[in-house]
Write a structure and sequence with these properties.
By secondary structure, this protein is an all-alpha fold. Helices cover about 65% and strands about 5% of the residues. The longest helix is centred in the first third of the chain and has 40 residues.
Length: about 425
């Protein structure tokens, strides 16, 4: 029987009296034979090879020195802190990092793809729609706080729920939140929003805006309107994916929108005092005095985010994930572990049955080669050697009645 197949079918595997190099070889075996992310934890110098071989190494600082801690990616003081490190801090930081990466790509696609749509109207002449300093400040000031809020303050559920329901950790193990499919969903969503953010204002102002002075807007007039809608939309998108609100989160999202309006009002008056960026002079007065701007400020971001809001609401209602079930229970001030235990007990039992079937099949195969099971019948049909009413999956009953040496060794591994 292949060691990896047997180990993979077990919930836990204990390797006794192995050398430091053998510890590393076990980790390398799992890395090479599966797609799993490996973690090694140790507290002594004999664990260094294993820690360095794993994807993630964790060292324990203690009486055996600091060799393991120095070779590790993370260091904790006691083994019991591993639970919090993985199920709470690790899971939260993974989701935060995913949100920051996806949101950063999304918000830049929204702005810079708009220049592509504008190029179709200017004959690809190289004319820009946005003022150069506004483009530069987009990631520095006006949309820098929302990803910071997502990456530092946001979390899906409480620490207590994550510790009581370890199944929540499977979201990060299965890469459900970050994969090729999710990335392209965000990318195409950004392209879709850029289409609406550019062509809807162009449609609203296709006959231009004429003011009381007889003047009309130019390309920077419509450009700053589109820029305003973009800042508002991407900030509201951050609000839509935020699950934990506090005072700093409100400042990051609503403050970013307010900052752009204040900046535009000040920047459009700079040329009066300093000969700088003359094309922006007086634009804030034109934009803020235009009723069509304020009407479209409500309609355009709404049109962009309406699909996102409806899709999220339908998905959470029709097919909510485990995390969303927990969130709903927490909002009701109920213990989510009781509800989750009832809802997911059947699926977990089915998972255990499949794992046990796999392990039992291995036992039958080896028993046949040792002469314990009559070889003249197919292994999957020879059930008469199992205890009565035990079925083909009851390893515990089988081990009690039949205890040859090879069975006891397998049972000790399980």
């Amino acid at each position: 029987m292949d060691f990896f197949q047997l180990a993979h079918a077990c919930k836990s595997v204990i390797c006794c009296r192995v050398s430091p190099s053998q510890k590393a070889e076990v980790v390398e075996l799992v890395k090479s034979r599966s797609k799993a992310i490996t973690l090694a934890i140790g507290d002594g110098a004999n664990d260094v090879a294993m820690i360095q071989a794993a994807h993630i190494g964790i060292g324990i600082t203690g009486v055996e020195g600091l060799q393991a801690a120095c070779a590790a990616d993370y260091t904790i003081a006691q083994f019991r802190f591993l639970v919090n490190l993985l199920f709470v801090h690790g899971a939260r930081n993974y989701k935060r990092l995913v949100d920051v990466i996806l949101y950063s790509f999304y918000k830049n696609i929204c702005l810079y793809v708009i220049q592509v749509w504008f190029a179709f109207q200017n004959g690809f002449s190289g004319q820009i729609l946005f003022e150069k300093w506004c483009i530069g400040f987009y990631n520095v000031f006006f949309t820098s706080a929302p990803p910071g809020s997502l990456g530092l303050l946001n979390f899906q559920c409480s620490k207590r729920s994550r510790l009581n329901i370890p199944t929540l950790y499977k979201d990060s193990q299965s890469r459900r939140h970050f994969n090729i499919k999710v990335f392209w969903q965000w990318a195409f969503n950004g392209i879709y929003h850029s289409l609406l953010l550019y062509w809807l204002p162009v449609f609203f102002f296709k006959h231009d805006a004429v003011f009381g002075t007889g003047q009309s807007g130019d390309n920077f007039f419509i450009g700053n309107i589109v820029y305003t809608f973009t800042v508002v939309t991407v900030c509201l998108k951050a609000a839509l994916i935020t699950t934990a609100w506090d005072f700093l989160t409100h400042i990051a999202i609503w403050g970013s929108i307010l900052l752009w309006f204040v900046f535009l009002a000040i920047y459009s008056q700079v040329w009066k005092f300093v000969p700088f960026s003359a094309e922006m002079y007086g634009l804030a007065n034109w934009i803020y005095s235009c009723p069509a701007f304020w009407l479209s400020l409500f309609l355009v971001p709404l049109a962009c985010l309406l699909r996102d809001f409806v899709w999220t609401s339908l998905r959470r209602t029709v097919s909510p994930s485990l995390v969303e079930h927990v969130q709903e229970q927490e909002l009701k001030n109920e213990d989510p572990s009781l509800y989750i235990t009832l809802q997911y007990k059947r699926s977990k039992s089915q998972e255990n049955i499949e794992r046990t079937k796999m392990l039992t099949g291995m036992m039958v195969h080896d028993a046949s080669s040792m002469g314990i099971v009559p070889p003249q019948q197919p292994a999957e049909t020879r059930k008469d050697w199992l205890p009565p009413n035990s079925g083909f999956i009851d390893i515990e009953c089988f081990v009690i009645d039949y205890q040859p040496e090879w069975v006891r060794s397998v049972q000790s591994v399980v």
